[in-house]
Amino acid sequence: MKDKTIDYILRATWQSVARMYNEEASKFDGSMAIGFALLSIDKEEGTPSSYISNRMGMEATSLTRTLKTLEEKGLIIRKKNPDDGRGVLIYLTDLGKEKRELSRNTVLKFNEVIRQNVSEDKLKNFIEVADVITELINEKKIF
Question: Considering the entire predicted model, what is its pTM?
């Protein structure tokens, strides 16, 4: 069998992780995107939507759909930014805070299980390789 390409390994692994998170989130009427969005919103202070999209690596149109879903589910509210009347801050509702905590615990559980099954050295190497890939892409050294 031929060696798998690096991009195949990354894509297949991420698809498995995404499927796992979506399966878990569906138990709580959520999705991975909703969980990550909730984790990107400060528990107490309002968070600008631009910060959320940057943190999640989402385009503005995708984030708009996600925020609309969060609002429809009663997880967030939007308020005008008092420092910038053109901007909007996103706040978690009480239900949003509960769902955020579920998301946080899910991510912590994933990390805990990985750390129990992968040595510190292997995990360190994985992170270093991921950092190099990100750096090469960001510095446009591949294409």
Answer: 0.88
70 located within any domain = yes
User: 63 with 47: CB under 8 angstroms?
Assistant: no
> Residue 118 in 3-state DSSP?
coil
Q: What is the dihedral of CA 22, 43, 47, 31, to 10 degrees?
A: 10
Is 48 in a helix, a strand, or coil?
strand
Instruction: Tell me the DSSP string of 82-101.
Output: TTEEEEEEEEE-HHHHHHHH
CATH number of the domain where residue 72 is located: 1.10.10.10
- Span 74-81, average pLDDT: 95
User: What is the rounded distance in angstroms from the CA atom of residue 116 to the CA atom of residue 80?
Assistant: 44
DSSP conformation class of 31 = -
